[in-house]
Structures are given as structure tokens and as C-alpha cells.
């Protein structure tokens, strides 16, 4: 690997930052200490950070001269998980853990800012460091956008450490890279009765059983098999007792798609199937469909630039990522301006890639990955702002 020498020099600093944020994780929109620490570090680098952007976010601009303006974004929230990693720098906050690697994202972006402020580069342009709250479900990106974090920006870039790929790999591609993540609740209402006398009732458990299976046919029969989609019903509630016909069942689930057209297809077919099932069984079925994050769709030219910047670090190990159907609110930025979201391989054990998945209580990363990300960023800035 060709780690940039400026980054290699501050390896201890980057790892120290990551471990400190890991030790004191904070949930979405509660990133108070986190934002304070970031602000303090940025100030000590000579930057003038803006605070309370998008509630608990922080941004800072570094101007080198006239030229393009690019944003580099790190998310900074943790998850409601009790850490079981046993690490010496494990979470001190009960029930809260950096189990997705956002601690590493903060450290990488601080490292990038440090190197850019402490060295002389012949750049033409401005870099905005964007520390965003609440990626895990609350869509902090939308609040950052409302508060103007994209104003004047030409492009935006973001990194995720990625335990599904080995250290020394960088996953990047143009087009969809993360899925849409919508949620839904379904309420089925019928007429209950005695378990021995189904006549005259509308058994909502029968209706629910049928509906769960029918909804899966959207994925298996309606969408193009070459385009990934997921419908998951994760929760069913209903019924009173073994000998009572249930008058109400509720279901909750999520849908995932890589394109807006599949996302809309799923939504419209759900409505059609639900109304058909309701009619078939004489039940009342109410769908409450909530739009979550849109698909994250990388733009062509920025993705090409990242690929070239990454190739300088990891050679041919830069390429198509290990994809998941996870969602990411970086999608909102990419709906507004061109940019690219990419993955830095960070699996702690390259022979057992799935042993430490994101969002698990023993999550950890290979901290050497935290040198790869900033190296890619520096190469990228060379390309965009160099002479
Ligand atoms: Ni994440």
C-alpha cells in the first residue's frame, strides 16, 4: 500500500482520536462531547469551525485560493448497543457503542484536515470538512443541508470503513452503491370470535399469513431479477388466546432497492396487493408507508476520480465494492450535487470477513484502514485542486 507519507507521520494521532471517540460514543443528535472535541481539534489546526450545523454538526472551510469547492463528510453518531468487544478503549457509555465505525470516520477526516492545514500544498480551491450527526436512521444529512452545508460546494465525498472487505481494498463504483431504506406498518382489522366458530368472523391471522407471502412475490415476480430488492417483515403482533379468532394483527417491515423506479414499484405493488387481499378476505387493511433514505447513487466523474486516487494507494485492489442493501443518508447530498461515497476495507481478520459485521456488539476495525482513507482523500484533492 502507498500510504501518503504525511498521513503515515500522524498515524498515532489518528488512532488516538479514533479510540477516544470510541470510548465516548453518543447517539444521534446527542453528539455533544463529540462535536466539542472536533471543534477543539479544528480550532487548534487554525480553522474556524461553525457549530450547531444541522443541530449537532460541525463544519469548517479551508481555502487555498480560487478554484473548485469540495466537501468531505464524516458521520459521527453511535448506536444503542452494549459493547462486548473487550477492547481496552471500549465504550464508557452504557448501552451506546460505535458499532458502525463512525469513530473511524471522524478520525480520518480530522487527520485529513490536520495534514492539509499543517503542510503547504499548491492547491487552488476550498475544502469543507463536514462532521454530520445522526446518520443512523434520523437522516442528519437533511438537517445539514437545511443549514446550508452544501452552499457553494461543487462536489461532495464521503467514506465508510467496510468490514466486508479486507484491509488494502477500496470499494468504489459509479451508480447505486447503497439501497433505499423505507419502513412500513400494516394494520389488519377483522371480526374476532370463538376459535371453534369461524363462521361470520374475519380471521386477521389468516389474512396476515396470506399477505406476508403475497408481498414476497413483488421481489420474486415483479422486479427485474437482475436488480436487487428486498422486502422484510420483521415484526408481527396479534391475537389474544389459543381459542380466540384474532380481530387485529399488525405487521412492520422494511423495503430496500437500488433504484427509485424499483422503490416506487415496490410501493405501488404493495398498495395493490393489500387492497386485493383486503377484498378477498373481507378485512380492513391499512398501510402506513414511510419513506426512509433514498438509494445512494454515485456520480460518474467523481467516482472515476476516487477510483484513480484509490488506485494510487492500493493499486488494482481498488474497484467494485462488496455491496449490501444497507441505507445511508449520504444519498441526500448526492441528490443535490455530484459526488461519491466509497468504502475502505477494514476487516480485523481478512480470512474471516463476516466475523465482525457492522452493528454487532463486538465490532472493531483494522485501524490501518484509517490511514488508507485520508491517503485517498489527499490524492483526490491533488487531482481536483492541484496544478
Ligand atoms: Ni455507518
3D structure, described in words:
- By secondary structure, the chain is an alpha/beta fold.
- The protein is built from 10 helices and 16 strands.
- It has helices at about 5-10, 10-25, 30-45, 100-120, 140-145, 205-220, 260-280, 300-315, 330-335, 370-385; strands at about 50-55, 55-65, 70-75, 125-130, 155-160, 170, 175-180, 180-190, 195, 230-240, 245, 250-255, 285-295, 295-300, 320, 340-345.
- Strands 1-2-4-3-5-16-6-15 form an 8-stranded mixed beta sheet, with helices on both faces. Strands 10-12-8-13 form a 4-stranded antiparallel beta sheet, with helices on one face. A two-stranded antiparallel sheet has the order 7-14.
- Strand 1 (about 50-55) and strand 2 form a beta hairpin.
- The chain is elongated.
- The mean pLDDT is about 95.
- The structure holds nickel (II) ion.
- Nickel (II) ion (NI) binds near residues 100, 135 and 160.
How do you describe this structure in short?
With 387 residues, this protein is an alpha/beta fold. It has helices at 5-9, 11-23, 32-44, 102-118, 140-146, 204-222, 260-281, 300-314, 330-336, 369-385, and strands spanning 50-53, 57-63, 69-75, 126-132, 155-162, 170-171, 175-178, 180-189, 193-194, 229-238, 244-245, 248-257, 284-293, 296-298, 318-319, 339-345.
Amino acid at each position: 500500500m502507498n500510504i501518503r507519507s504525511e498521513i503515515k507521520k500522524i498515524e498515532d494521532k489518528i488512532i488516538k482520536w479514533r479510540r477516544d471517540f470510541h470510548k465516548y460514543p453518543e447517539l444521534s443528535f446527542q453528539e455533544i462531547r463529540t462535536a466539542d472535541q472536533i471543534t477543539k481539534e479544528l480550532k487548534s489546526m487554525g480553522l474556524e469551525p461553525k457549530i450547531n450545523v444541522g443541530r449537532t454538526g460541525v463544519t469548517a472551510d479551508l481555502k487555498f485560493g480560487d478554484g473548485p469547492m469540495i466537501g468531505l463528510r464524516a458521520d459521527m453518531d453511535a448506536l444503542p448497543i452494549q459493547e462486548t468487544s473487550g477492547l481496552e478503549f471500549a465504550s464508557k457509555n452504557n448501552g451506546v457503542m460505535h458499532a458502525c465505525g463512525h469513530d473511524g470516520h471522524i478520525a480520518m477526516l480530522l487527520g485529513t484536515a490536520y495534514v492539509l492545514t499543517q503542510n503547504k500544498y499548491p492547491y487552488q480551491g476550498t475544502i469543507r470538512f463536514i462532521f454530520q450527526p445522526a446518520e443512523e436512521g434520523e437522516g442528519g444529512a437533511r438537517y445539514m443541508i437545511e443549514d446550508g452545508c452544501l452552499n457553494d460546494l461543487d462536489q461532495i465525498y464521503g467514506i465508510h470503513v467496510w468490514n466486508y472487505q479486507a484491509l488494502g481494498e477500496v470499494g468504489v463504483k459509479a451508480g447505486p452503491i447503497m439501497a433505499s431504506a423505507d419502513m412500513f406498518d400494516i394494520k389488519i382489522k377483522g371480526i374476532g370470535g370463538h376459535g371453534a366458530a369461524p363462521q361470520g368472523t374475519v380471521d386477521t391471522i389468516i389474512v396476515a399469513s396470506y399477505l406476508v407471502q403475497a408481498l414476497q412475490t413483488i421481489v420474486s415476480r415483479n422486479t427485474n431479477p437482475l436488480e436487487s430488492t428486498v422486502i422484510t417483515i420483521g415484526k408481527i403482533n396479534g391475537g389474544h388466546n389459543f381459542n380466540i379468532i384474532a380481530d387485529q394483527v399488525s405487521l412492520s417491515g422494511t423495503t430496500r432497492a437500488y433504484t427509485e423506479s424499483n422503490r416506487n414499484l415496490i410501493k405501488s405493488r404493495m398498495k395493490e396487493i393489500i387492497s386485493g387481499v383486503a377484498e378477498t378476505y373481507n378485512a380492513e387493511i391499512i398501510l402506513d408507508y414511510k419513506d426512509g433514505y433514498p438509494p445512494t447513487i454515485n456520480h460518474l466523474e467523481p467516482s472515476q476520480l476516487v477510483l484513480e486516487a484509490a488506485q494510487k494507494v492500493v493499486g488494482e485492489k481498488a474497484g467494485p465494492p462488496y455491496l449490501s442493501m444497507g441505507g445511508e443518508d449520504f444519498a441526500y447530498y448526492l441528490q443535490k450535487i455530484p459526488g461519491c461515497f466509497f468504502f475502505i476495507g477494514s476487516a480485523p481478520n481478512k480470512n474471516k470477513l463476516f466475523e465482525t459485521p457492522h452493528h454487532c456488539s463486538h465490532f472493531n476495525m483494522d485501524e490501518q484502514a484509517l490511514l488508507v482513507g485520508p491517503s485517498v482523500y489527499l490524492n483526490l484533492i491533488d487531482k481536483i485542486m492541484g496544478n
